[in-house]
Amino acid sequence: xxxxxxxxxxxxxxxxxxxxxxxxxxxxxxxxxxxxxxxxxxxxxxxxxxxxxxxxxxxxxxxxxxxxxxxxxxxxxxxxxxxxxxxxxxxxxxxxxxxxxxxxxxxxxxxxxxxxxxxxxxxxxxxxxxxxxxxxxxxxxxxxxxxxxxxxxxxxxxxx
Length: 160
Prior knowledge:
The protein is of the alpha+beta class. The chain folds into 2 domains: 16-93, Arc Repressor Mutant, subunit A; 98-160, no CATH class. Helix content is 37%, strand content 9%. The chain has helices at residues 17-25, 28-38, 44-51, 55-67, 89-92, 95-108; strands spanning 71-78, 81-87. The chain has a two-stranded antiparallel sheet with strand order 1-2. It starts with 16 loop residues before the first helix and ends in a 52-residue tail after the last helix.
């Protein structure tokens, strides 16, 4: 029996941009591909070496990222035919997500020895934070109030 129009069925998950994004990039190797292309490593052999993914798995992830419009594929050699991968604007917009994940890992997994340091153009080490685009303030958990926009959903879940 279908749920009434506008009401979620009892087992339908919450409509969510996070879930939809994770469906595209939520797999380990996909995020590591993004890391590498954002660091300037664009060729398949570089990606295999730096990520450590099996070649077939990496090829599948690259195809998926290209199909999703996150990467573009360009020929850099005709004989043999070889390609490089570059981030699209959508791919570049995911870069802050990577640096925020890196910051969390530096704090909670590698507090004594960061595997990589990113230097900002100001000359200082980047410490990634999330800031409000309106006021510029650093965003903290207690500063946020959720307002579900999908009919039939509340913060707690489906409306009764």
